[in-house]
Amino acid sequence: MNKDASRGLFLVLGFFQAGMFGFIVFAAVMANAFPPTSTYIMPSLGIMAFCMSYLYPQIKQKR
Distance (Å, rounded) from C-alpha 54 to C-alpha 48? Predict the structure, then answer.
């Protein structure tokens, strides 16, 4: 994989996790319920994926 493909993969995973979080929160709001506590892991994984995408050139340079 070239560096752009790996960086793009992290971006896709970040958007996927953010989208899943948004969908579950939307479904919980529409059901007039509180989202399950396990839902809050999703945005943290999304943020971590965005950070990895941003830092990927520096991580690759260290190898």
Answer: 10
